[in-house]
Design brief:
The complex is a heterodimer of chains A (180) and B (95). Chain A is α+β, with helices and mostly antiparallel strands and 180 residues long. Chain A has helices spanning 2-16, 24-30, 41-57, 63-68, 88-100, 151-156, and strands at 31-39, 70-80, 104-110, 115-122, 127-136, 139-149, 174-177. With 95 residues, chain B is mainly α. Chain B has one domain.
Chain lengths: 180, 95
């Protein structure tokens, strides 16, 4: 029993530390532009209250409950002047870590020059954590959303506050290795 | 030489007479105490609290606004990259 508990905790910890697998400071030093977002539970409550206030004025008072279930939103996004500033193997190491921790890939596409993936951790019923990996020749992005994520509620955010439509589909993953 | 001796005598250090310091100090007038009306202190405290409360409220509002903008940006990036991943997957599967 203790062994399984330790195993579960280790898996959960490795998943939460997904952003720590890369040396972002080192990568950011080579980047042309970088975006860094760290919103923990407290900051999300404040953000939800602020956005909720705007939403309420617009007649959509569901923002607070929607974001209120999230525990953390973390983004690291870098844009480089030229190609080759990071290694695709870095992204593969994150992918490997997630797969080892039994995360489910919703989408996973790997090419020679780019790679994209959407991974979720569920408790069997709902999504508890989401990781988006996006590695393009001159752009590298990792998004980590922690909390009770309802895909339909998340999709409802699309079109508001400048957020594009979100297509987060469950079910069988689209997983393919692009050899081109 | 006589003049110099006289000068030395005049300028020589002498002890002040007894009670000199006390007499000088007694002549120095103490500055008049500034009297403030009784309502001044409570009003000052109330004003300070009001300014403090407004500042804290404003600070929180600014932090909330910043957090809101960061959340919108984070979700925009997430939505954008999820869509990109979906598009790439679709392209690969359609080949």
């Amino acid at each position: 029993m203790r062994f399984f508990l330790i195993l579960t905790l280790a898996a959960a910890a490795s998943a939460q530390d997904v952003l720590k697998l890369l040396d972002w400071e080192k990568l950011a030093a080579r980047a042309k532009e970088s975006a860094n977002v760290n919103l923990d539970g407290n900051m999300l409550s404040m953000a939800a209250a602020f956005l909720g206030g705007i939403e309420k004025q617009a007649g959509h008072p569901d923002m607070k409950s929607l974001v209120g279930k999230l525990k953390g939103v973390y983004v690291r996004s870098l844009e480089f002047e030229k190609e080759g500033e990071y290694s695709l193997s870095d992204i593969d190491s994150i992918r490997g870590k997630l797969t080892a921790a039994k995360w489910s890939p919703i989408v996973d596409v790997r090419g020679k020059r780019e790679s994209s993936g959407v991974f979720v951790r569920t408790d069997g019923k709902t999504i508890q954590e989401l990781v988006v990996l996006s590695a393009e020749p001159r752009e590298l992005t990792v998004v980590n959303i922690v909390g009770d994520i309802n895909p339909s509620e998340l999709q409802a955010l699309g079109g508001k506050f400048g957020i594009p439509d979100i297509h987060l589909q469950g079910g069988s993953p689209k997983q393919k290795k692009d050899d081109e | 030489m006589k003049f110099e001796d006289e000068l030395r005598g005049v300028l020589a250090r002498k002890r002040a007479p007894t009670g000199f310091a006390e007499r000088v100090m007694s002549r120095v007038e103490a500055p008049p105490a500034r009297r403030r009306p009784g309502w001044f202190a409570p009003l000052a405290v109330a004003a300070s609290l009001a300014v403090g409360a407004v500042s804290v409220g404003e600070f929180r509002r600014i932090r909330a606004e910043r957090a809101g903008r960061e959340l919108a940006m984070a979700l925009s990036i997430a939505a954008d990259k999820i869509r990109l991943a979906e598009t790439k997957a679709k392209e690969v599967w359609e080949r």
